[in-house]
Amino acid sequence: MAEAFTPDFYLSEFNLYVELTTLKSNLTAEKNRKVRLLRQLYPEVNVKLLKKRDLFRLLTKYGYGPLDPEEVPDIDHILISTGKLQQRVVEMGKQISSDYANQEPVLVGVLRGVFCFLADLVRHISVPVTLDFMSISSYEGDGGGAVKILKDLDENIKGRDVILVEDIVDTGMTLNHVLDYLWAKKPASLRVCTLLDKSVRRLTTVNVDYVGFEVPDEFVVGYGLDFRQRYRNLPFIAVLKHELLP
Ligand code: 5GP
């Protein structure tokens, strides 16, 4: 009797055949038997049986959708994968290193959303840098009024070359206020670096010198960005389900 076995994928980089099983565990016995037989007959063939859960875990780990809805129920879809984030952050680090050759810039991060991006970015900057952090009042604030400084800089930036590092620029109001605040401290220069730019929502003109990614008019979370303090630990940028937003 002839039997056929047609794995779902071949990963050429690993010389690995992957067979997916989305069936209930009691129904996978037949697949397991075939895989065992194949291994016996053709031990040189590298084949792996992946259960649905294993597949979702791998996709989540490497930042590709779809996510298992049971694991992250508030996420609609992944916008920027882990790989793409890392690739862009490397490019941005290189650009800053070449623009600030022979200088020692002060990188000012605006907490808390920027923590992932800044931590990755500095590791790709090859010139010496000083790091400092500010914390300001939250997004839901007073709709355009001056931002409240919750934590001021620890460093004196007078005469220094400063790069303000942001997670996302949306209307631009926050950034404008922070820039005014920093200019008052008389730095030699002041540039802005943001991971994400939602420029379609801009209400005020702000000059952003380094942009990681343009994003559409969606509420995004992950890689430091939160929704009600959750999801900062996702290794990718994802769009939150619309129905959750106020
Ligand atoms: P802006 O003053 O530019 O309107 O708002 C900037 C701040 O709003 C960001 O630093 C961030 O805290 C928050 N924000 C704007 N858009 C988003 C978004 O899509 N996701 C998250 N998590 N925060 C956002």
Core attributes:
six-stranded mixed beta sheet, elongated, 246 residues, single chain, 12 strands, binds guanosine-5'-monophosphate
Detailed description of the structure:
With 246 residues, this protein is an alpha/beta fold. The protein folds into two domains: 9-61, no CATH class; 78-244, Rossmann fold (3-Layer(aba) Sandwich). It is built from five helices and twelve strands. The protein has a six-stranded mixed β-sheet with strand order 7-6-5-8-9-10. The protein has a three-stranded mixed β-sheet with strand order 1-2-3. The radius of gyration is 24 Å and the shape is elongated. The structure holds guanosine-5'-monophosphate. The site of guanosine-5'-monophosphate has 19 residues, from β8, α5 and β11.
List the helices and strands and how they pair.
Blueprint: E1 9-11, E2 16-21, H1 29-41, E3 47-51, H2 52-61, E4 75-80, H3 82-99, E5 106-111, H4 115-122, E6 130-136, E7 149-151, E8 161-169, H5 173-183, E9 189-197, E10 210-214, E11 220-221, E12 237-240
Parallel strand pairs: 2-3, 5-6, 5-8, 8-9, 9-10
Antiparallel strand pairs: 1-2, 4-12, 6-7, 11-12
Helix pairs in contact: 3-4
Guanosine-5'-monophosphate binds at residues 113, 139, 166-175, 198, 219-221, 225-227.
